[in-house]
Amino acid sequence: MYDFSALYEATSVQNAVELMQAHPSAVLIAGGSDVLIKMREGKLAGAELISIYKLDELREVTMDPDGALRIGPMTSFSHATNSPMLQKYMPVLGESADTAGGPQLRSIGTLGGTICTGVTSADTASTQVAYDAVLEITSVSGIRKLSIHDFYKGPGKVDLQPGELLTAILIPKESYENCFGYYIKYAMRNAMDIATIGCSVNVVLSPDRKTIRRMRIAYGVAGPVPMRARTAEAALNGMPVGEAAIAAIGEEVLKDVNPRTSWRASAEFRKQIISETARRGLKAAIERAGGVF
Amino acid sequence: MEKKLVRCNINGKDVETYLDVRSSLTDMLRNDYRLTSVKKGCEVGECGACNVIIDGECYNSCIYLAVWAEGKHIRTLESLLGPNGELSDIQQAFVDEAAVQCGFCTPGFIMTAVKILESGKEYTREELRKQLSGHLCRCTGYENILNAVEKTMKKRLGKA
Amino acid sequence: MVVGKSVKRVDAFDKVTGRARYTDDLVDKSALIVKICHSTIAHGMVKSIDKSEAEKIAGVVKILTCFDVPDRPFPTAGHPWSTDPHHQDVADRLLLNRHVRYYGDDIAVVIAEDEVTAEQGVRALKVEYEEFSFVLDPQEAMKDGAPLLHEKFKNNILAHTGYEVGNYEEAILEPGLVKIEGWYDTPTVQHCHIENHICYAEEQSGKIVIVSSTQIPHIVRRICGQALGLPWGSVRLIKPYIGGGFGNKQDALYEPLCGYCCQQVGGRLVKLDVSREETFVSNRVRHAIRYHIITFARPDGRFVARRMEAFSNQGAYASHGHGIVAKGASAFKQIYVDDKATKVDAYTIFTNTPASGAMRAYGIPQVSFAIESNVEDAAEILGIDSLKLRQMNMMPVGYKDDFTKNINYFDSLNQCIAKGKAYIDYERKHAEYAKQTGPIRRGVGMAIFWYNTAVWPISLEASSCRMVMNQDGSVQFEIAETEIGQGADTAFAQMVADTVGVPFEKVHVMSTQDTDITPFGTGAYASRQTYVAGFAIHQIGTQLKNKVLNYASYLTGKPADVLDLVDGIVIDKSTKEPLMPIDELATTALYSLDQAEQFSAEGTTQIKSNAYSFGCGFVEVEVDIPMCKVTLLKMINVHDCGRLINPQLAEAQVHGGMSMAIGYGMGEQLLFDPKTGKPLNNNLLDYKLCTMMDHPDLKAEFVENFEPTSPFGTKALGEPPTCPGAPAIRNAIFNATGVSINQTPMTPHVLFARFKEDGLL
Q1: Which domains does chain A carry?
Q2: Taking residues C643-658, what's their average pLDDT?
Q3: Which pLDDT belongs to residue B1?
Q4: What's the per-residue H, E or C state across C643-679?
Q5: Which residues contact B137 (CB under 8 A, 6 or more apart)?
Q6: Residue B54 pLDDT more than 90?
Q7: Quick one: CATH architecture of B3-78?
Q8: At what angle do helices C529-556 and C488-500 cross, to 10 degrees?
Q9: C17 vs B22, B43, B77: nearest CB
Q10: pLDDT of residue B160
């Protein structure tokens, strides 16, 4: 039995935003893996809940006329992994989703929920950041769009105003086209764990596959929120495919990151893993793109 | 506290009951339907003892609101016995492979195994490890559980 | 004969169908719910508890605090009681504590109509403390001026024992000796049975009836009697199926408190269901022990003298206390036998951390890590193959321990080593892997261990059982040694079947222990069950059989001594002629108008022996140096636990122990905030219990030397599988990288620091 004081079950997106407006202090619950666990810990005791679990309209992955991938934020991790659309255009998103927790968690955890909690360790978040996702946010007053980079405000804090609901995650066509990604989760266990470091790398190579035309790299747990390593990206763009690029990225990423020491891991240790996952991630992404070392 | 009518299909039977909306699915299955194979080991989705199948997918019922079960098809371990009390192949395999010790993680594991087997796919041992990795067991070292699932999978695929 | 055969578990059907009932499956929904308020400081005095807000919550039935409970200290350890006050466990517990000694200590309870209300009530309590300074490290706690946990124990030392074999100071003067010295640290870990501890209580027929997830029903009855000030017979303890125990439930956990709550609400049904987070902190943990070992060896490898100091972290309360480190001290002089001298000092020290209790293998995983690390380092320093070094110094055949009178009858260790090294291809790989360079390397490692069976002569060893024959010739079997998942009921059924002479299917083991019904016994611990129950089963089963044969003699007119009962049929021993099936005989006897008789036998067997149980573990690892990660590729344990009663279940038992050892070696550790003493990772996400993806295939093999002291030739297997894994992993990492890691678990954090230190990163 959970300790909450009321439950409002939304029947549509419109109904959801109306409920949110009517109950501004209520907590939104999507799959439950965040909210229900906090509730067990007594953290949200007595709260009112608005459930959007039944909004199946938010569970689809489709393509917009402009070629952008439109991912319903209620898409579960396991559905992301099994989505033919994502497998075809952006397999790394489903692959990163497939590293979260264990199989049962992947049935409830959602791509939207995992970014709305503002958690730096979320496995799919770094990939969404690495692909310049654009978020579509709905409220009673309409729809606004913003870049995922502007969405994160701080640990556990995102740019969602009262009454606002994330209704789509958009991956622009130029972001995934000819682009090959790779995600490395580094954790203490091989399952049922949160990332000590999550590293998502993607590359677009030149047509002859000898030059890195565009490289993007994003991390979870390398800073307070999922983050891009822009200095490293700038340094790598245009570099020839080869060991020199791999060596370079391991150094360059350290200029961008800001991991902290906690009981979970020291900053020094995280930096070691940040460098090493950058090297291995970039190499794997290049190989996926057909680059040869 | 507010009560709500929840109608669903549990183990092949259409059922309905008025529930305290604060109930977890574990609460509903154990308390309202006496399906006590659904075990409580952590109640925060970390151990897998309460795993059940909902519309073909595995869920830890401890972090699933019972009201979400409305209209769903739910299966628990109790559904697996044949009409004359015969064990299903996967249950028999757990017996034969000595995959059971204290038995507390067993129901959850078997339900994940059911989902794996019903996919009709063949998995490598490593893939099976991943699919079964949402369950913690402290007694068996997982070895015989993995063996039971692998052997049953091969049998069903005619490869054993 | 069914002993020695891999028959299926007697409880398997119920467990794969969900019909096996555990405590929470049995309790009525009407039960009141008890929730505990735990201290949020590591050390101090509760000044006041304001209940006013909590009392206002609808559905709160009663609030009991540390100011209400009787001042009647009781012990909790699941040891057999001793009628000698000097050998009794330390009685340092109250039901609720004003003097709180760790973060998570029990200070109050809220009893409410439902769980949510009880939790709300706990959150609404306002506790005022007087805070004391606290200490988490045992060696710090021993220092003068350290915060004192228990007035009676100066410098927080619960106990200090030691021994000296030979003269150590003299022995080390021998010229030419090589000194190998190290400090070895083992962690605080938790049992993590998947069913948390749970109990419920109700007054019935003037007694407190407590149903509990425990390993030791009769012991818990005694402790509840002591804690509640009741005659022991006024407590009835019932143990249904339990979801694992591993020693945590070899303690009175919350049964006394639950019984007290029941008394305080007029005997109504109350349930105390412990959360996972509470289980980690407010139950028991494994003793974290720090060792200092100095070995003096001759250049040829022979150990001349060794010294060990051990500092065992008891946590806040005595529980099982000094027994754990003492068992390791005993192992130290036996697993390797020094040429001249062995000297040990062992301390058990209170700190402001959760109470340490029994956990699978009772101090031997700890000491095995220290000893086997030291031996591996010795081999490196001496330039001798580490396997040969072990073989040169380990307990020889014929060794007899003065205290236990145990005799090493067989060359078990060498036989086990031979099997283990063949499986791993140890010698070839060990040499080959030592030469590697590069970021990813492989290594092999091994460790041996010593164990003994049951607790004689430290404590009582006795087992009682009852056998009653039914009309159909089947046998009801009752014993207080408990099924906790390990397969005890199945092994008992096998031994009963063979002793009485009935088919396995005709033995009905009563799995539930009920202290009002089940014969007295002390329960599951010390890897004793099959060993001690074997004596009782042999004695009582023989009595039952003799009664049957006497009746058969009456029916057939043949003398009883020419008759035998084999597989459910009375036969003439000389002709092998079948005379009568047991069902016919039993029915005849029960319904005879001439001479009616129920065949039953019951009694106690005292066991005044103990038995060595040896083995080894081998592993192969891959070490990814830049990622600071170890992957286990292969792992084997080889045990000599005597004759196997049920080979398949024995193998399964070994797998489980190996898994626990992997966790002990690579990931598990309960952490505390040094600033507050607060536990940091008391949940199954942050505490890294192995998943299926963290394991290689596990291999279990056996050497079966028939144990001469046991009627069935058996000895300890329950706990030993946990012993060799962690040091074997450590030694494999050493083989792969040349880096010696003297602390466990060997997590990536530890590897990172050590690889840095040794220049690998």
Answers
A1: 4-51 (3.30.43), 56-174 (3.30.465.10), 178-288 (3.30.390.50)
A2: 98
A3: 74
A4: CCCCHHHHHHHHHHHHHHHHHHHHCCCCCECCCCCCE
A5: B105, B109, B145, C194, C659
A6: yes
A7: Roll (3.10)
A8: 30
A9: B77
A10: 81
Q: What is the pLDDT of residue A42?
A: 87
Residues in chain C whose Cβ is within 8 Å of chain A: 114-116, 119-120, 123, 277, 626-628, 667, 671, 673, 680-681, 684-686, 688, 690-694, 747-749, 752-753, 761
* Spatial distance between the Cα atoms of C609 and C710, rounded to a whole number of angstroms: 9
Name the region of C156 (left: φ>0; alpha: ψ -120 to 50; beta: rest). left
Whether pTM > 0.80 for this model: the answer is: yes
C535-560 as b/e: b if 16+ CB within 10 A: bbbbbbbebbbbbbbebbbbbbebeb
B123–chain C Cβ distance below 8 A for any pair: no
Segment A109-124 mean pLDDT: 96
What CA–CA distance (Å, rounded) separates A239 from A242? 8
Q: Which pLDDT band, with edges at 50, 70 and 90, does C336 fall under?
A: very high
**Tens digit of pLDDT for each residue in C321-330?**
999 999 999 9
**C-beta separation of A185 from A140 below 8 A:** no
Question: Which of C651, C671, C717, C714 is closest to C190 using CA atoms?
Answer: C671
Task: Catalogue all structural domains in chain C, each as residue range(s) with its CATH number.
Answer: 30-132+197-273 (3.90.1170.50), 133-184+284-393 (3.30.365.10), 462-606 (3.30.365.10)
The residues that bridge with B4 in the sheet, in sequence order, are B19
Nearest CB among C116, C123, C691 relative to A190 is that of: C691
Residue B77 per-residue DSSP state:
G
Residues 6+ apart with CB under 8 A from C616: C413, C416, C417, C420, C446, C447, C448, C449, C637, C638, C724
Q: What are the residue ranges spanned by the domains of chain B? A: 3-78, 89-156
Q: Which residues is C403 bridged to in the sheet?
A: none
Chain C CB contacts of B105 under 8 Å are 194, 243
Please name the fold of domain B89-156.
DNA polymerase; domain 1 (1.10.150)
